[in-house]
Amino acid sequence: MSLVHRRVGRRALRETGMSLGTIVVAALFLALVMTGSRPAAAGTAMPQQDEAVPLEVAVVLEPPSTSVVLGDRLELNITVANDGAAATPPLVLHLDVLDPDSDGSVDPEDWTTTLTRPIAEIPPGGSTDVPWTIQPISAGTFTVYAVVVRPTGPGLSVSNVTEVTVEDQRSLNPGNILPLAIAAPVLVGGALALQLTSVRRSERRGRGTSAEDAEGVII
Amino acid sequence: MTAAVPTGSTSRGFAGQTRPVARWTVIARQELMDLWAGGKGLSILFGFTLVLSILAYLASADAGINLLDARESVGLVVTTSIALGTLGAMVVSADAISGERERDTLEALLVTPVPRRHIVVGKLLAATTVWVATLVVALPFAAVMAGGPGVMGDAVTVLLVSGSLSAAALTSLGLAISSVAMSNRTSLVVSLAVLLALAAPSQLPAVRSSTTLGPILIKLNPLSASLRLADNVLVRQEPWSDQMVYLISPALAAVVFTVAAVRLARRLELGGSR
Amino acid sequence: MNESGLDGRVRRADRSLAVVTENLSVVYGGFTAVDRVSIQVERGSICGLLGPNGAGKTSMIRALTTIVPAAEGTATIVGHPLTDPVAVRSNIGVLPESNGYPGAQTALTYLRFYGQLYGMDVADAEGRALDLLQQFGLSNVPSRISTFSRGMRQRLGLARALIHDPAVLFLDEPTLGLDPAGKEEIMVELARLAVERGTTIFLCTHLLDEVERICDQVAIMNRGRVVAEGTVDEIINSSGADSFARIRVRPEAIPLADEVLRGTEAARAISFDNSRPGDLIVTIDSDHGSAATTLRALLDAGVEPQAFDFRGARLSDAFMAITSGRTDDIKEGVGS
User: Fold this and answer.
1) Could you say which of A137, A191, A192 has the minimum Cβ distance to residue B67?
2) CATH of region A55-167
3) What pLDDT does B14 receive?
C-alpha cells in the first residue's frame, strides 16, 4: 500500500469512528468463525475428496466398426470395467453420435430412445455389460462413442469409437404406395382439367353467341 | 322476343299450387351439379388428394425404413383425411347460403314456394358429399398402407364412423353460420374461428399435459375427439370399447348443429340494403 | 288502384283485385321503410310503382313477395294473405333489381331447376323452359350464363319469373342497364303478358316515359309513403305540373312577342332559349288559359310564329312536382 493510501485509510477509519482495537477484535472473531466452521465443512466434503480420485474404469464399445442398412436396428454392446482398487460409485453411461465428415450435427435422440443409462456400483475388478440398440435415421458414416461419468462432480472415462456405416436403402415404391399416390391425384386432376377445358370451350362459344346476341334479339 | 306467350303444356295451374312443395331433393341435385360440375368440388378434392398422396408416400417411406410403425402411418393418413375432409365440407357449407346472398341469387330462391328448411337440407346434403368424396379417396390409401385386414378394418371404421360424425357436425355448423352471416368472408372466417376456438385449447402444451382439463377439452371438441379416437385405435391399439366416449361430442354436435341449421333456416333473410 | 277505403266486405267479394295492402309497414331496426301503405291493384293491370331512391319501393316489393315481414298492416296477393307465404309465393313471379345468376349453369338448366321448384316434374319443367327460351330468344344459347350479356340475363330473369305462369309479376327495375331497343322489347313483352295472359304486373322503375306508356295505374312513393296514386292522367292533372309552349318568331319580333305574351293571363312565365335565338318558352297557366290562347294573342298582335310546339305536362313533371314536396297531400285529391 502506498503512503497516500495508508493516510487515506487512516483518515477514513477516524471518520468512521473505528479504532484499531475494534478492527483487531473483529478480525479475531472472523478467524474463530472460519476455523470453527472448517471441521463441519470438511466432513460434508468427503466425496469431493473421492472426486479428486481419478475414475479408474475402462469403457469398451463393440463392435469397433460395423455397417447397417438404413432403417435397420443395430445392436451395440458397452462394457464398463472397474480397474481401480475401490468400488465405483453409481455411474451414468451416455451414448453419443457424431458425423465427423459433416458440419451438420447429429441429434442422437433420433437414433436411440434414451441417451443415458444408470450403472450400479461396480466392485473392484468387476465389469458391467450394457446392450444398446440404435436405429440410424440417415445414411453416411458416423462415429459412435460412450462416456461414463459420475452423477455429480468431475471425472469421466471415454470409450473407443465405433465407426458405423449406414447404407441408404430408399425404395421408390415403399409399401407399394407409389401407384396409388400417383394415380389418385392424376385421376382427380385429370377430371378437373377436363372440366376446366370444357368450361373454357363453353365460354368461348358463349362469347361468340353473346356477341351475335342470340336469335337476333337486341337487348 | 318475338314469340307469343306460350299456352301449350304450361298453364296458370302451376301458380295455383298452394301446398308446400317438398323440393329438397331438387335443391340437393342442383347443388350437387353446381358443386361437382362447376369445378369447385373437384378443386377441393384435387388439393386433398395431392396432400394425401404426398403424405402417404412419405409415411410409407418412413415406415419402409422402420422410422414409423405401419399403424402410425395409417393413423397419420386417417387423421389427415378426417381433418382435411371435414374442413373441405365445412368450407363448402359455409359458402352455401352466404354465397347465394353475396351473388344475389338468394332472393329468387326465397320467393319460390320451397320451404326454407328444404333449401337448407338440400344444401347440407350437397356439402356433405365433399366428405364422402374425400372418404372415397382416403379408403384406398388406408387399405394399401394398412398391410393387413385388422388395421384396415380399424381404419375404415374410424373413417366411416368417427370421421363421418365429425364431418356432419362441422358441415352443419358451417351452414348454420352461413345462414346468419351477411357475407361469404364473414361466414368462412367465423366458421374457421369457431373450429379453431374449439380445437386450439386442446393443443396447448399446458392443457395437453393437464390430466384433467386436457382430456375434457379434447372430448368436448368434435374434431379433436375424432382425431384422438383415430390415434387411440390405430396407433395405440386401444380397444374400441374404451373409445365410445370420443364419439359422444361428434354425435351430439352433428345432431345439435343440424337442428340449429334447419331452425335458423326459418329466419333466413336476404340481408343487404332496403 | 282504388283510393276508397279498404272495406273488408268489398275485398272478399271483389275477386278482380290482385294486390291489396292495408296500412302495410316495413321496419328495419328503427327505420320505417314503408309507412302504412294502402293500395289496390286490379287483376290484369300494369301498376307502376315510382319514387326517388330510398322511397321504399324495393321494400314494398320485398314485403309483398314475402321476403321481408310486414311490421304492421295486412296484404293479400290474389286473395292469399302474406301470412300464408307458400300460397303467395306459388302465385307470384319476381325479378329483383339485383338478380344474380349461377354463372356455371346454362339457361335451360336454370329454368328447369326453377320449374321443378314450383312443383313441375322434370319433363314439364323442361318443356316449359324450352317454350320460354324460345319466347325470349334464348333457345339456341347452349353456353353458360356467365357468358351472357346484360340483356340476355334480363330476359332470362324474366323467363325465370314466368316459369310457373304466375298471376302476379313483381319486377324491380327490369330494364336497368339495357339499351333503348332492349327496354322497348321488355315493355312490349310486359304489355303483351298483361293483355294476353291477364298477368298482373307490379312494375318498379325509374323509366317514367315507359310507365306513362304502358301502366294502367301508378303509385308514387316518397319517404315510405304513397304520396300519389291513380291513372297516369289523374296523377298529372292533380299534380299541378305545368305545360309548356315553345314559340319561334323572327329575332326582331321578340320584344313585341314578349310584350304580348306578358299581357296574357295564360302565360305564367316566359323565358328565352339562348341557344336558339328567336325561341320563347312559355309556361302555360292552365287555370287561366291554354297554349291556344297565347298563340291567338300573338296572331292578333301581328306576330307570326315561325314554329309552335306545345308540350303538355308529363308524368315526369308530375313526379318531380310530387316528390319535390310541392304537393304533399296530393293523394287525397287523386282517384277519389
Assistant:
1) A137
2) 2.60.40.10
3) 52
